## 1
Amino acid sequence: MSWSTLVIPQSPPYYAYTATLLPSGLIIYIGGLDYLSDVYPVNMSEACLYMLLFLIFHS
């Protein structure tokens, strides 16, 4: 078994979030802090979905 990191150029502009793999194959990113402000939490209604099948984000 090997591990690799996928670099995603259009990833969400925040950090300290939670990412959960859903049974549908989507990954949902919720919460975190905004990179630009470094202190403002991301609005919980602004969750992003990552589509593994197409390797793209959808908000």
Note: The first strand starts at residue 14 and ends at 15.
## 2
Amino acid sequence: MREPDLYAVLGVTPSASAEAITSAFRRRVRELRPDTRVDAVTAERFGRVRAAYETLRDPGLRAAYDRERAPAPAAPRPVRRTRPAGAAQPPAPPLRAGPVRWERGPRPGPGAREPSAARGA
């Protein structure tokens, strides 16, 4: 028999915060009320709720539980790279140019000085 999902026992999502887990636990405990209901089914449900809360409230145990219940990653499929017969070689990557050094030239417009006049020649 497979163990029940602890998140489903408390009625929360796997991404629930610690506060949401505590709130859901308290809500379930109020529903079950072990001090007023004394039958075997309720006691067993209360035990499952308590065990789920004990596991999910501790960050270390919760992380271990999440790792355990996560599906195993699928093996990566090999990539087969082939070129059709008669295909040309792939083009070479484009050339990359480094930074460009600009020289300062005369400013266009009225009042622009000639480069020789600016040097005092």
Note: The two ends are 99 Å apart (CA to CA).
## 3
Amino acid sequence: MKTAKWKVRAAPHSAEEMRPANASIKSLETEAKKMSVVSPHYDVVGDLLSQKANITVQQLVEDNKLYRKLLLAALKKPKRTKVKNLPIVFQVGLENLGSPKVDIEIDGCLIKHVPIDSGSGVNIMTEETTHGLGYMKFESTPRVLRMADQSRRRPLGVLRDLIIVIGGV
């Protein structure tokens, strides 16, 4: 026999209060007759499938932590991003400025507009510049230099203990 949900009260005082919630006596009688005619056994699965949840959203949120988190995440307003004032950036046209250049002083001799190559591991000076500065003898070195085009060059030698001032520093 199919069970019905009953109203929960302190104590029933009349037959009216003993009636199941949302059901009338005639509907219960016809349902009981159908059950007795169809099958003499109680169908638990059929009874569970015909049941409907009688729960409020508030009860669901209070009882189920996961549902509460999902609901709060869905209802949360996205934060407004703060507008930052960016500094004014001046863009140089299509002109290529090339590598930066500084003035270098070697042993009191000023050489202007020397390109800076901060990526090199060795400081290289041409033979013409070394002779112009008065250096004629070099210390020999076993090193072989690999240039940017992957060609290999053997230097004339090494100059040590030079006083060099770069950019006035």
Note: Residues 145 and 153 are 5 Å apart (CA to CA).
## 4
Amino acid sequence: MALWYIGPGVMPRLIGWEKPDDHLFKINTDGSSIGNPDASGSGGIIIDHCGNFVTAFSRKLGNTNCLTVELWGIRDGLAAAINLNLHNKDVLEADSAVAVSLINLPPPNTHILSTLLQMLDGYIGNSGDQACASGTK
């Protein structure tokens, strides 16, 4: 599947989504905040290796910032995968480079998001997966 994205002052470019390898599931997550901070929410979808819909999830988060929203989307995607017994069978894609780096190299316990990051670490440990996300923002 490929889409053209055209934004203000942005040249059109081809973007797309690729199915995961055979017998794997892909978790795609995203979050949005109208302001930073302001009204926010996150969500995502799980698709199988044939491109078939497995499940979707979303969460209204109230007034918070973009990074918190992205992390909640990742957390809810991993929780959904665990609830569906997709242990060691999933690939996570998120578009926040900052969120991905915080998961891969957790900050000290004094970080403002340390509780949420510890929850994510627990989900990653329970699923047997590594935080293998691709961040672009």
Note: The mean pLDDT is 80.
